Amino acid sequence: MEIYSIRGAITIEENTSENIIKNSEYLLKEIIKQNKIENENIINIIFSATKDIDKAYPAIATRNIGITDSSIMCLQEMNVEDSLPMCIRVMITAKLDLAKKDIKHIYLKNAKKLRPDLSIKGFSVAIDGPAGSGKSTVSKRIAKELNFIYVDTGAMFRTVALYCINKGIDCSNANMVANNIEYINIEIRFLDGIQQIYLNGENVTEKIRTQEVAKGSSLVAKIPCVREKLLKIQRDLAKDNNIIMDGRDVGTNVLKDANVKIYLDADVEERAKRRCKELLERDIIADYQQIKQSIEERDYQDKNRDIAPLKKAEDAIVINSTSLNIDEVANLIIKNIKENIK
């Protein structure tokens, strides 16, 4: 047997002793049932309740259902602005004959919003915007916090461009690219929820992050056969996974029915600074003026291409990240996601 901590939460309808105890019993029973916990294997149980719950201790429920030999504690949850009201949380530490992957954390009623990855499947978030607006960085942050899968569509186009560059194929020559498209095998794998991209069996996640490849990706993105090949991969990933997908046309084309759509923007000067910093962190020499010019050129190409140009979806929320840090942007998007989870 291994020792595990199992989490859970439930919301209550009103602040009464009866309501608090009844819902706490319901939550405990569901956790115990779903994880096949024997009373004698429970080590301790810690409850926390939001500030608006004060008519009874949730711990009373443990005695009511026969848990009498474990350490129990009740705490008040931090009073965080815009946090979920009327919520009781619990953590049960117990010895279980289960693998970690088989542990079931239980979130009931409106508390499902706290762990959307557990309560729903196939929830999609589309984040579009120009180069350097912070899409990838913020998408990774959100995916990690919500336990969603992060899909970087731009990386897929970069991978096609890398293949062309390595083979001496002009990225702007649609016929040459089309003649080679069947030889480009792209596979997406995930490590701790972070996308790893493979080109014909080779992990090229880092190799695609160069300015040359970035320019090439904007060119191959105009070619119909490339978009058709990648579109199927992208939509298949969204069918059975909770995903955060970023790109140029996710909300307008790839995932037109995404549950949440964000258009993330920033001033070109700020985007150039961010890209320079990103490259320098990889020990790549970066010239600010060249980067700025490259971003402006890419903006023009992305917004004026014939197929799926970069634009804001009609139902997308616009966030300008110029004066915001990553945490501020992520919190705004996470708040919107939780508000849209049914």
Order of helices and strands: EHEHEEEHEHEHHEEEHHEHEHHEH
Q: Class by helix and strand content?
A: alpha/beta
Can you tell me the CATH topology of the largest domain? Rossmann fold
Q: What's the Cα radius of gyration?
A: 24 Å
How many strands?
A: 13
Number of helices: 12
Distance N to C terminus: 36 Å
Provide the helix percentage: 40-55%
Strand order of the largest sheet: 3-2-4-1-5
Taken together, the total number of domains comes to 2
How would the global form be characterised? elongated
Task: Using the coordinates above, name the CATH class of the largest domain.
Answer: Alpha Beta
Strand content: 15-25%
Mean pLDDT rating: 91
Tell me which CATH architecture of the largest domain applies here. Answer: 3-Layer(aba) Sandwich
Query: What would CATH call the homologous superfamily of the largest domain?
Result: P-loop containing nucleotide triphosphate hydrolases
Provide the descriptors you would attach to this structure in a database record:
60s Ribosomal Protein L30, Chain: A; 41% helix; 2 domains; 5-stranded mixed sheet; 22% strand; elongated; alpha/beta; Rossmann fold; 5-stranded parallel sheet; single chain; 342 residues
Quick take:
By secondary structure, this protein is an alpha/beta fold.
Notes on the protein architecture:
The chain is an alpha/beta fold. It has 2 domains: 2-111, 2-Layer Sandwich (60s Ribosomal Protein L30, Chain: A); 124-340, P-loop containing nucleotide triphosphate hydrolases (Rossmann fold, 3-Layer(aba) Sandwich). The protein is built from 12 helices and 13 strands. The protein has a 5-stranded mixed beta sheet with strand order 3-2-4-1-5, covered by helices on one side. The longest helix has 19 residues, at 17-35. The chain is elongated, with a radius of gyration of 24 Å. The mean pLDDT is 91.
